[in-house]
Amino acid sequence: MHFLLRISTRMMRLRKQSIGLIILMFIVISATIAFVLEPDTFHNWFNAFYWVMTTMATVGYGDYFAETIGGKVFTIFLYIFGIGLLSLVIGKIIDSIAEMQRRRGAGTLSFRGGNHVILINWSKKTQAAVEEILCYLPECQIVIIDETGRHPLEYMDQVHFISGDASSDEILLKANILEAKAAIVFGDTRIDEASLIDGKSLLIASSIERIAPKVHSTVEIMQEKNIRNFQHIHVNEFVLSHDAISRLAVRSALQEGNSEVITQLLSRQHGDDIYEIPLNVAWKTYGEAFQDLLLQGATLLSDRNDLSINRKLDQPIPTEARLYIVSDDETYRRIKG
């Protein structure tokens, strides 16, 4: 018994490829021995192979069985060692699955997918962003990068976690930044000083821009004055952290119901939303686009960040225009075609 335990312990230490090769050789040799011992029982080598597999996996189906003393002794050998080897394989598989789950939770597994969204620095805002992204794009893959040692949303299969410093090339490449759709850098709320928070965000944004300049980047800024420090790198969007909340609170106090309208536009989970639509060749002016969209149940809002197009309805729509509308999801899908 001690001998068998020593062998099992040594086998468990072997690599999966080595164990697989040993078991394959064991099965092939066992099938050959069985056929040599019982040629009249099995008739051909494949039947012997089939018998070895069923004997190792269960205790055989009874369609083939050894008739000679030598064959029966060999069958007993298979019961002891064959089933033991198969159990070892099953144990290795279970161990590998458990190890994968452990590494996923610890954030040490690299992400191999593409067209995903990367969220950097975990907080309540990051969690809200995950919910909003999945509401907008239910099939989207999300990668969270944070310096905590545990996956914050381990129960969500679509959310992958990378543990480490997001300004590190190694960590960004682990998150497959080169094939990402977008990256959002949230301020690290574990830092007390606002300038230091923006400094860390600047460092991360610089790394993203250097490694993957084509990835759409959005950075949360704690202090508006620090935006000028980002001028030497390309950042697609800046979001002022506390500024937006303060303005929303003031508007809510001075104009009742104002905040509800803005909240609806900000969240896909409530009411109508803002969508970008493709240009229609039939639209020559903003006025034509406005009237056509209105008849379809949508409101033309802006061309890029220009919200004044309702005062230039007679002007032609430039070829590089990016039109945004306010509508429900059904109307947007109908317009988009």
Automatic annotation (TrEMBL):
The chain crosses the membrane at residues 20-37, 49-66, 73-94. It catalyses: K(+)(in) = K(+)(out). It comes from the Bacteria. Its main location: membrane. PROSITE patterns: RCK_N (PS51201). It is found in: Cell membrane. One of its GO terms (molecular function) is potassium channel activity. It holds the Pfam family Ion_trans_2. The keyword Transmembrane applies. Residues 114-240 form the RCK N-terminal domain. GO terms for cellular component: plasma membrane. It is a multi-pass membrane protein. Keywords: Ion channel, Ion transport, Membrane, Potassium, Potassium channel, Potassium transport, Transmembrane, Transmembrane helix, Transport. This is Ion transporter. The lineage of its organism: Bacteria, Bacillati, Bacillota, Bacilli, Bacillales.
